[in-house]
TrEMBL record:
GO terms for molecular function: DNA binding. Residues 5-62 form the HTH lysR-type domain. Belongs to the LysR transcriptional regulatory family. Keywords: DNA-binding, Transcription, Transcription regulation. This is DNA-binding transcriptional LysR family regulator. It comes from the Bacteria. CDD domains: PBP2_LTTR_substrate (cd05466). The keyword Transport does not apply. Pfam families: HTH_1, LysR_substrate.
Length: 299
């Protein structure tokens, strides 16, 4: 029975009730009176009940008609809201935007997220963190639409937007009272190091170790971890030093640590925005990418 009831019939019925007469309702709907009367008759026949009592030119709802009218108004209101929500979601004005970000890349996000929220306040942002390997998995599983990762990715299945290169710096415990404002690679030969290491695959860890070997020594790595904030906490506690992208230190300004430029190192941390090739991107994701690319010009 439900399939036989046309939404147009419900709108016609609602208008008839609100106008109280077929004539006035037809005028409001900009249609002739006979097809409007026929629509009401078909609706009542489909339901097998009388919805309106005809008292001369005036129409009054029956008890069943009152219930049906209330439900109809509620349904039509929900339908309008659903259509509006779908249209606004399609246009990027509401919905959910899912983003994944490596913690050491979070530097690139706060300003863009603030501006994005200001412009699209009805879009909920779902932010997930992890190393490059985990962010890639989130993309493959469609848990997120956009990822911000450290390179290399180890796969060519992603579209990439290169982010500005970022020099590596040394981060030491403040309690060590290191007197210089910079450090050389060979000065870290005897220093216990805490290094970022992916859950799987090669990345920053291998780059730093190779740089140490290039300067003639094998680093003393006492801890490997994929979370840069955990490394900073360990450095602050005096466990050792770390070598990380400079932007990560700027983002997570923790007490009891000292950042030093590395005088004789040329290695740069590379980062990129990634999303899957040949996959539909929501309008919210497209809006976010355009906004982020615009912000990068000013970095």
């Amino acid at each position: 029975m439900i399939a036989l009831i046309d939404i147009k019939q419900l709108k016609y019925f609602s208008t008839i009730v609100e106008e109280g007469q077929i004539t006035r309702a037809a005028k409001k709907l900009h249609m002739a009176q006979p097809p409007l009367s026929q629509s009401l008759k078909q609706l009542e026949e489909t339901l097998g009940i009388t919805l309106l009592d005809r008292k001369g030119k005036k129409l009054e709802l029956t008890e069943a008609g009152k219930i049906f009218y209330q439900r109809t108004k509620h349904f039509l209101h929900q339908l309008d809201e659903m259509i509006l929500e779908v249209q606004e979601t399609s246009s990027g004005l509401r919905g959910t935007l899912s983003i994944g970000c490596v913690k050491s890349c979070f530097y690139y996000l706060p300003k863009t997220l603030r501006n994005f929220h200001d412009k699209f306040p009805n879009v909920k942002i779902h932010l997930r963190e992890g190393d490059t390997f985990l962010i890639s998995e989130f993309l493959q599983n469609r848990d997120i639409e956009v990822g911000i990762v450290r390179l290399p990715i180890g796969s060519d299945e992603y579209e990439t937007i290169q982010l500005p290169s970022d020099p590596y710096v040394a981060v030491l415990p403040k309690s060590w009272n290191y007197e210089r404002h910079s450090i050389r690679m060979r000065d870290m030969k005897e220093i216990p190091l805490l290094l970022l290491h992916r859950v799987s695959g090669k990345g920053q860890y291998e780059m730093v170790v190779n740089e140490c070997q290039h300067h003639g020594f094998k680093p003393t790595v006492v801890c490997e971890c994929p979370d840069v904030t955990i490394l900073f906490s360990l450095v602050a506690a005096g466990v050792g030093a770390t070598i990380v992208p400079k932007s990560a230190v700027s983002t997570f300004q923790l007490p009891n640590i000292t950042m030093l430029e590395i005088e004789d190192s040329s290695i740069q941390a590379e980062a990129a925005i990634i999303f899957q090739k040949n996959r539909y991107l929501s309008k919210s994701a497209t809006n976010f990418l355009e906004m982020l690319k615009s912000e990068l010009v000013h970095l």
